[in-house]
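Lab notes, practical 5.
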Amino acid sequence: MSKHKVIYDTDPGVDDAMALVFQALHPDIELLGLTSVFGNATIETTTRNARFLAGRFAAGVPVAQGAAAPLKRGAPEPLAWIHGDNGLGNIALDTTDDAPLDARPAHRFIIDTVRAHPGDVTLLAVGPLTNLALALADDPRIAALVKQVVIMGGAFGTDGVLGNVTPAAEANILADPDAADIVLGAAWPVAIVGLDVTQPTIMSHEYLASLRERGGAAGQFVWEVSRHYEAFHEQSAQLAGIYVHDSSAVAYMLAPHLYTTRSGPVRVLTDGIAVGQTIQKPASMPVPAPAWDSRPDCKACIGVDVPGMLALYERTICGTLST
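Output from the prediction step:
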């Protein structure tokens, strides 16, 4: 029996694709479905990419199309200079075996699947959190039925790591801060895997080349899909490799011992110059803070065993988990 039943809420996205391959190949993960959301590209593009990825790496896993725009704002522009014009690093896409599209909108797919597996489903969300907020609005009681929510998003200032879109905000949270504040305040267990641990985790050019050489078709795909993405990192951050964002959320779910976390309620700023900022009141802070104190604790990742995370990904892609 699989250890983790997962709904992967995603806006593919190069790093989303790399995280999907990670999940599809890991024996302790059972993918129950992919739900698409706007973010790295338009909803049409992210849905097509989710169907392509499911068809290629997770045959039989359904895909449901989600939100095209934030709850209260206009949709952001696609990030073609980061993820390519097609969202997947401009690789050629053979859509012959695309996964079929589920008839339900993503938030209903989430509700129905959680209710079909009460207490067992992990929501792994690596894009804007709009679908999760819509699911809560439609059926608030699902919060008590979800095993956990693991989010790639946000930043808490550990070692000076702040935003990556503005000085205050990370991209996924900024894309729909209203949804993020709702999701982080709901009564379900939440772990936040943010820039504090994803930016220190770097897949070097040599590491990616090793996956290409030793990882078979999956390793070749990871190499090809990351070429445009690596070029962006070299230009923007003078980095000979890539930050490991979405796959870090997968790694946290599989191996939480690789991460140091801090507990406490989290708020997301929804207006002003710091819109999208994630602010945690640590559980150890005694002073009253009414805007935080009525909300449940979240776990925010503030430290990571980088070699351990990279080894887990490498063993999964290369099929050497048992060695």
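Observations recorded by the TA: DSSP finds 14 helices and twelve strands in the chain. The chain has one domain: 4-318.
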